[in-house]
Each structure stands twice: as C-alpha cells, then as structure tokens.
Amino acid sequence: MTDADPSAPSPEPTEPQRRAIRSYVLRAGRMGTGQQRALEDLGPRFVLPYTGQPADWAAAFGREAPRVLEIGFGMGAATAQIAATRPDTDFIGIEVHTPGVGALLKRIGEEQLGNLRILQHDAVQVLEHMVAPGSLAGVHIFFPDPWHKKKHHKRRLIQPPLVALLASRLAPGGVLHCATDWQPYAEQMLEVLSAEPLLANTADGYAPRPDYRPLTKFEARGIKLGHGVWDLVFRRR
CATH number of 33-236: 1.10.287.130, 3.40.50.150, 3.40.50.720, 3.10.310.40? Predict the structure, then answer.
C-alpha cells in the first residue's frame, strides 16, 4: 500500500442526492386475519414484484387486453367493483400500504377476479421503469391524500411532472380520471391537468361521475352532508 500523492488534486465533493418528496407516508396498519391469509395465499400470484424493467403485462395477465393503472387504491373496494364490471379490461393497482393490499387480495379471492394485479411499490418508479410509453388505456387516481396544510401541498400527488409522465404512458385516446372531495385540491388538479399539452379535458371544467366509478359509502355519506365531489376526466390527444 502506497501513500497518496500530496500534490494530487483532491476529488470533487459529491453532492448528496436529494430525497424525492413522497406523496404518501408509510404508516403501520392493523392486518385482519383474512387479509393476512390472502397475502400468504394469493400474494404470490397476484402481487407482482417491482423489477425496474419493462413488464411483460400480457404474460402477467395471461392475455392481451386494454390495461388501466390505478394509483393508491386504499382498501380496494372500488377497484374490485370496477374490475368485476369490466372483465375485458386488465387492471394494475398500485398501493404501498400492506393492509390495503391484503384487503384487495381478499376481494380478488372472494370474487374470483382474474383481471387484477397489484404492485406494492412507489408509483412513480413503476411508471418510469415498468410501464412502456403509450401502453395504457387509462389511469385512475381516486381521492388521493389532499395534504390540507399549505406547507404540505408539495406532497400532493397531482403535480406537473407526474401528470406529464402519466400522459406519456397513455395511448392516444386513453383516459386519465381523477376524483377528489377537497375543493382546493380539485382546483389545483384542474389547473395542472389543463396545462398538460398531451391532455384534453372531456368536459367544460369538472366532469360528471362516470358510471364505472362506484359511489363509495364515505362519498355517499359526504354528499348527504352537502360535501362536494369533483371528477376530472382528461383524454390523451
């Protein structure tokens, strides 16, 4: 081992990588026995690993069909209902919280839903590395966390960089459908989506709720109390 040459220039200090701002916070959640059993029994078949490589979705589903990707399906009730009513479409659900993954797996088993696959990973990385440009028939983002406090608005999911990425993954004519029950977030969504040149609004502002999006119990209760819900449906040019 030789001593370093003191006259040699010092290496340039490397800039530390900035942490990406996440739109979610991983929280510990309670797992029911049914959810845990579904994870163990059905997870190996229906939960796909994150690979960082373009996915072979036809192989994953065992067929070639239109594909719709959903970001943040929560406990999966609406996701399962939509998949059940649209058997000719394949659905890719992304959710980071394990109880929600277990809950949707349980529904998959109970309702024998063969057109659903799950990724438990960061949605941005999935979109960037596993989903090919122009390959999706639709994207659903229903009731994402509104991050009410102004200092947390930077965590909101619907931001220009993500919308540009989503638009690039949609096939021409593909639909990006967002919904929220928080009016300030709805206003931000409308502004951001309208500014994306690859997208065109299907309505004059907010859209009527499409028939395929089920009315959740939480949503129905809010409507009875006079709370609003805003749907935004944009189409890839």
Answer: 3.40.50.150
Strands (E), 65-127: 67-71, 90-94, 116-119
Report pTM: 0.86
Binding-site residues, in ranges, read 70, 95, 122, 145, 149, 181, 216-219
Does residue 3 register a pLDDT over 50? no
Instruction: Indicate whether 24 pLDDT > 60.
Output: no
Which residues are documented as binding site for S-adenosyl-L-methionine?
Answer: 70, 95, 122, 145
By annotation, the residues acting in catalysis are: 145
Higher model confidence: residue 12 or residue 197?
197
